[in-house]
UniProtKB/TrEMBL annotation:
Any GO MF annotation of the entry: isomerase activity
Binding residues annotated for Mg(2+), in chain numbering: H436, H514, E591
Keyword Metal-binding (UniProt): yes
Enzyme class: lyase
InterPro entries referenced in this protein's UniProt entry, alphabetically: DSD (IPR043700), Glyas_Bleomycin-R_OHBP_Dase (IPR029068), Glyas_Fos-R_dOase_dom (IPR004360), IolE/XylAMocC-like (IPR050312), VOC_core (IPR037523), Xyl_isomerase-like_sf (IPR036237), Xyl_isomerase-like_TIM-brl (IPR013022)
Family: Belongs to the bacterial two-domain DSD family.
E.C. code: 4.2.1.118
One Pfam family matching this protein: Glyoxalase_5
Superkingdom classification of source: Bacteria
Cofactors (names): a divalent metal cation
Protein name as catalogued: 3-dehydroshikimate dehydratase
SUPFAM superfamilies, sorted: Glyoxalase/Bleomycin resistance protein/Dihydroxybiphenyl dioxygenase (SSF54593), Xylose isomerase-like (SSF51658)
UniProt keyword Isomerase present: yes
Length: 616
């Protein structure tokens, strides 16, 4: 851990949606110290640069840099002379904006001359002109630059130019997208690095320009080692602003304030990974302590009956609230119909739905401190005298996440006896634990969820895959804790007509769309639940014919699967069996899963399940 004063946190206006004023307000509201003014945001703004300067000042934002200046160095005449004039005009703008630094990105023009000495001479002349006005020039290698695409090459040119007012700008995306090394940045003199930009990105195979312009995301949302990159930068002695610069199609339409909050969360995470700032360490996630459903009295009766067909029993009534506890094995489901509560608010907006997820953690206070440090909002439910306070935070979509840790005496801080009249012990049925909780996300919000679960709870994003719903594609990505105790598949769809799309549009936002319970004997579970009145989701015979061909299963096994509507898959050298309930009120549904060594979620079966659900 480096012992440093906090470095200024900056964000490029190009990251955020809206007009320039919206962007500035969002950056300030999130808590950034400064902004990079992207030239297009200035050109399309009706006020003068001096007014922009005042606006930023009023919001407490520094203008950290003006960018970009393109296609400057190593041009043939007459463009070369014209570029010098153009630079003077931009210096006028910078002075009106009140920023002293301009970003020059490496030339992308075909006519640019491949001659480092020419490039260095041009940049030196620009720096000399800038210096006369007390301004500085930073040179950044674009990964798709015509002749200069790597930081080492840009650094060589900066050194050749040898001007105090010319320095290097490094950007994690350009370095990491090319697979270039960043450790060498630590060896540079820190004062010659004039500015640092950070962006992450998912690993994609496409040309680097399109990748950069459409798919960058914030540190912690993608697959690049941005924390390591920042660590190298800090070792150089650089002590200027750390700035986020993300070009992303989804972010351009996301609400600017939510997006800016994610941006700050990502920057805080990257700082902690680089040892620049300290975050309370991750708490260990030990699974789901309980799920809470928002219901009214009628929905509660129906949901309680539905749960009984899955082997759950009513085990407790809250002492002071209109809340019931259903249990089986180690699974706790809370049905909340209390009028003046977060659940009631959730019910008003979404109807019967999961309104809170309580996570078991090894240290609830530390988990809460980390969430706070990562800008999560807190929630505290009303409670009666002597009732336990459960610390809660809001996930990125507002879902309530409660934190349940062991108390000082080693027991869980969740003591049902304390708050509930217990009617009976949890029955030992076929279901033992919650295996996973799957959520449907609103379009464009996958990165936000990935960042939340990764930064706050240390869950790791798994490979994303696509599932064909009869009405369009669904993209699915699971977030899993390091030891697998908490598994949260996240589903998202561009189409409003897929099961995910309908869920999000019909029920006003993101939410849990299925809960999977694990069992030791899937066939016994089907028989037991059918006897209790459960209708399993019917799977067409073609599925089983294909299954036989694919895995060479014995006929009697195939017949058994078919008779029980059980789906089958293999991964990680193990087997997986699963069946589904029909949806409750056409909303969420339940899955029962038996894992014999398999780690996945039966991806190959998802489209069969969705088609069966679409048939109703
Ligand atoms: O895509 C671009 O043009 C562009 C401009 C400026 C930057 O700092 C950058 O990283 C990319
Ligand atoms: Mg950049």
């Amino acid at each position: 851990m480096l012992n440093l004063p906090r470095l200024p946190r900056s964000i490029a206006t190009v990251c955020l949606s809206g007009h320039l004023l919206d962007k500035l307000e969002a950056a300030a509201a999130a808590g950034f110290d400064g902004v990079e003014i992207f030239e297009n945001d200035l050109l399309t703004y009706e006020g003068s640069p001096a007014e922009i300067r005042r606006l930023a000042e009023d919001l407490g934002l520094a203008i950290t840099i003006f960018q970009p200046f393109r296609d400057f160095e190593a041009m043939p005449e007459p463009q070369r002379a014209r570029n010098m004039d153009r630079a003077e005009r931009k210096f006028d703008v910078m002075q009106a904006l009140g920023t002293d630094l301009v970003l020059v990105c490496s030339n992308t023009q075909e006519v640019a001359i491949d001659d480092d000495a020419r490039a260095a001479a041009d940049l030196a002349e620009m720096a000399e002109r800038a210096a006369k006005r007390g301004l500085r020039v930073g040179y950044e290698a674009l990964a798709w630059g015509r002749n200069v695409s790597r930081w080492k090459h840009a650094w060589k040119i900066v050194q050749m130019a040898g001007h105090d007012s010319l320095g290097l700008i490094v950007d994690s995306f350009h370095t990491l997208s090319l697979g270039d090394e960043h450790a060498g940045i630590a060896e540079l003199p820190g004062e010659k690095i004039f500015f640092v930009q950070l962006a992450d990105a998912p690993r994609l195979s496409m040309d680097v320009l399109s990748w950069s312009r459409h798919f960058r995301n914030y540190p912690g949302q993608g697959d690049l080692d941005v924390g390591g990159f920042l660590g190298s930068v800090m070792k150089s002695g650089y002590r200027g602003p750390i700035s986020l610069e993300v070009f992303n199609d989804d972010f351009r339409e996301a609400p600017a304030r939510l997006n800016a909050r994610d941006a700050l969360r990502s920057l805080i995470l990257a700082e902690s990974q680089a040892g620049v700032a300290e975050l309370p360490a991750l708490a260990k996630c030990e699974g789901v302590a309980f799920l809470e459903f928002a219901v009214d009295v009628a929905a509660r009766t129906r949901l309680g009956g539905f749960l009984e067909t899955l082997g759950f029993r009513l085990c407790g009534r809250h002492r002071s609230k209109d809340v019931l506890l259903y249990r089986q094995g180690g699974i706790n489901l809370v049905l909340n119909a209390e009028q003046d509560s977060a659940a009631a608010e959730h019910f008003q907006l979404h109807g019967p739905s999961v309104c809170a997820m309580a996570l078991k953690v090894d240290d609830a206070a530390r988990a809460l401190a980390r969430a706070r440090a990562l800008q999560c909002s807190e929630w505290q439910e009303h409670r009666g005298v002597d009732e336990k306070a459960l610390p809660g935070i809001r996930a990125t979509d507002g879902t309530l996440i409660l934190l349940i840790g062991p108390d000082g005496d080693g027991d869980s801080s969740l003591s049902w006896q304390n708050d509930f009249h217990m009617l009976e012990d949890a029955p030992e049925g076929p279901l033992a634990q919650i295996d996973h909780v799957a959520q449907a996300l609103p379009t464009g919000s996958m990165d936000s969820f990935v960042l939340f679960w990764r930064a706050v709870f240390g869950l790791e994003p798994q490979q994303a895959f696509e599932i064909a719903d009869p009405q369009g594609l669904i993209r699915s990505r699971a977030m899993i804790s390091p030891d697998g105790a908490l598994r949260l598949p996240l589903n998202i769809s561009e189409s409003r007509k897929t099961s995910t799309g309908r869920f999000v549009t019909a029920f006003a936002g993101a939410g849990v769309h299925h809960v999977a319970f694990d069992t030791q004997d899937i066939f016994a579970a089907v028989q037991d639940f059918r006897a209790k009145g459960l209708r399993t989701l019917q799977i067409p015979p073609n599925y089983y014919d294909d299954l036989g061909a694919r895995w060479g299963l014995e006929d009697d096994m195939l017949a058994r699967l078919r008779e029980h509507d059980v789906l089958y898959d293999r991964d990680a050298g193990g087997e997986l069996f699963q069946f589904y309930s029909h949806a409750f009120d056409s909303r969420f549904f339940f899955e029962v899963i038996e894992r014999r060594g398999a780690q996945g979620f039966g991806a190959a079966n998802a489209s069969v399940r969705m088609a069966a659900q679409a048939r109703g």
